[in-house]
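new request in #modeling-help
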Amino acid sequence: MHLLAFDTSTEWCSAALWMDGRVIDAAVHAGQAHSRLLLPMVSSLLAEAGLTLGELDGIAFGRGPGSFTGVRIACGVAQGLALGASLPLLGVSTLEAMAEEADAEQVVTCLDARMNEIYAAVWRRDPSGWQAETEAMVCPPAVAPLPTASGYVGCGGAFAAYPEILARRYADLLTDIRPGLIPHARSIARLAAPRFRAGMAVPPEAAEPVYVRDKVALTIRERTMGTRPGGNTHGTGMSA
Amino acid sequence: MLVLGIETSCDETGIALYDTERGLLAHALHSQVAMHAEYGGVVPELASRDHIRRAPRLIGKALADAGLEIGAVGAIAYTQGPGLAGALLAGASLAAGLGVALKVPVLGVHHLEGHLLSPLLAAPRPEFPFVALLVSGGHTQLMRVDGVGLYELLGETLDDAAGEAFDKTAQLLGLGYPGGPQVARAAETGDAYRYKLPRPMLNSGDLEFSFSGLKTAVLNLAKKEGPGATADIAASFQAAVVDVLAGKCLAALTRTGMDRLVVAGGVGANRALRARLDAEAGRHGFTVFYPPLDLCTDNGAMIAYAGALRLTAGAPSDGGFSVRPRWELAELEAVPVS
């Protein structure tokens, strides 16, 4: 089975080809240039492998959470490629991809969600794969989800964005902290392969980002009732 | 050549198929108006989320309506700007991915050029050159159009767009969002002569517009007269806007010495404006052209069409993709069109 995977949910842009277990990949620090970098990166990987899109069995993309615009770029490009090449799609959680990327058994994944919040989840690997001990959430770093025991690896950009708060929050629960770890496309590909085999892929029109932060504006009614922005665990800004 | 058009610059997801031999084959549209109504205006992030959810399904619908497969698409045109950055990127991403998969050219189109050229999709179609009035919720401009990409700005609004004035007036009168159709409907039963509202800059001697003062006048009037006067205020307001737009169009035609006027943009669907311009056309001996009624608001057909004109004139494919949330029409390059 041959799969293409990519992710643009963070400041990094990564892509990978999974060819029956063999993986080739690429990643660059893209800043805000994902739209210029992603497709050339995909084309050069395909050329390196001597494959065409039509010879693939599917496309996996980092579905979020992460930068709203970033996850839409990945989803939109994936939809376009899949529509044009008649391929199925599969969205993979960026937080789970970070757990996979960490090469550990117990992982806390935290991405910067801006507006003084983070996207976070706690993961444990068992024989069937990654189990979310806490579901993906958006919250202030001071109340980040905690594992029930020590011995976890902390991963993701939020550990660089909020180093003191998260160090205090996790104290001695973490054995290692890797702020530079990203939801790399090669991990998305590894997670996606068994799911494609299990028939979990969807047609392009059914593929959607998962933003986690879903309250992005107040309705007229909420404004007149004096609902306070940030009064719940959701953000109220219009972008991230 | 079959061109797929993708429009996602604001709150309408528009998809269309335009064939350079056979014309417009299909156009599918999803309006987000209802979704944004409870927020009192367009929420950019929600607009972007909806585009990415709707666009692939609309492509499927347009293809089905035209009885075609995706493989028949020979080029893709998407709205590159101006517009909401996130919303534009949703369409641009989809277009770029499709372009790579189908191995066809992908071209970014200027949203306003789409509007400007949309009357060419109607019959009879205007010949170049002509004067164009672009009038919508975001723009009020008079342009001299000598060809595709040959645009000279003659005048524009100094503050609110005409469509924005309709939206704000609707809000002041409690008529809901979007304001254009609501105010027009209320005006149907109103007396347009009951209140004498200002005609801002009508006699300013130039081709600029201003609508913010009119909005203030409506506010004061609505406070003074109360809800019983809603229909008359709406009618008086609409008459003031129509007077100004028609007056400036006449002035632009006189100044340029042209006898063809093209009206594009959402406010171009307003019946009172159309009736007035038609009457002026008969009186002053010019011809006025409108886009088909369903192509006045944002749509994919105008993007597919503008893209087709540029692609057949040899415009190069974009390669990667980019968006230009701010983009002046005058920056466009001219292309020869036979």
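bot summary: The helical segments of chain A are 34-49, 68-85, 94-101, 158-161, 163-170, 185-197, 220-224.
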